[in-house]
Amino acid sequence: MKNNHNNLFNISKIVDYIEDHLDESLDLESLANEVGYSKYHLHRMFTNIVGLTLHSYVQRRRLTEAARLLIFTNQTIMEIGLFAGYATQQSFSVAFKAMFDCNPQKYRKKGEHYPLQLKFTINGKKQLRGDKIMDIKTIESQEILLVGYTGNTKKGFSVIGKCMRKLEANLENINNRTDKNCLIAVNDYSKDFSYDKEGQPSFDFYGVVEVTDFSVVPKGMVRLVLAATKYVVFSFNGNPKDSLQPVADYIYQEWFPKSTCQFNESNMYDFTKSYEPCDKDSNCLIEYWIPIL
């Protein structure tokens, strides 16, 4: 019998099925049978839409749920490892450390939960969603010195592109950059953040680069100092010229409520770092930095 559902519907069905059977055996063949596809076509379609192979997605979801159980339950590490599909505590520890950069014992002792792979949400759009984030880490950063151009979004987001283009055109005038492959976009919500009647947010934007000091600031550029603080940093591949609103929505609306992170109300800003070189599709490594306690 022919399956008349569209591909997004079927991938959504597979994602829901995986979520309900994380503690069971999940292989490509059984999942393909769920939607009536061949293993080959399911593999290609799932990878294209989700951005991960089916095997990698299942493993990342299981380990993320294992991390949640370590923090919010009293189950033993061996019990949690078995739930995640690992026959021994050693094999579970190796896989967990490869993903979270620490072993299960240390993760539980820290008492902080940073979910690396939430359930993927099919939204039918081609925009980059935050659930394609590949890495999340915390960084204790020293004071950051920045130089570049600024504007306010009160009259529209076009000021963001204007500042970044102006920065790129004058990079050769900044001789003391700390990383010549990195551009930084700062959203500063600390001064008169507001919305107008049409819902347009108003905040200060900075298109900047990090510098070693302020001994020489090119004419027309401004200085910005970010205080030493702790950040949660999300890494993913994307086009820095595309809107990152879907990523921000995911982080603030979906990820934070499921984590133990607390916002640093003394540092009301966030920023992205974009690293060259870009690939043939104009995608590059992007990091989204948010101050936390």
Structure, explained:
It is built from nine helices and ten strands. The chain has 293 residues and is an alpha+beta fold. Helix 4 packs antiparallel against helix 5 and helix 5 packs across helix 6. Residues 1-5 have low confidence and may be disordered. The radius of gyration is 22 Å and the shape is globular. It folds into two domains: 7-123, Orthogonal Bundle (Arc Repressor Mutant, subunit A); 137-292, Regulatory factor, effector binding domain (Multidrug-efflux Transporter 1 Regulator Bmrr, Chain A), CATH 3.20.80. It has helices spanning 7-20, 28-35, 39-50, 54-72, 77-83, 89-100, 104-110, 158-169, 245-258, and strands spanning 135-141, 144-152, 182-188, 194-195, 201-202, 204-210, 222-226, 229-238, 269-275, 284-292.
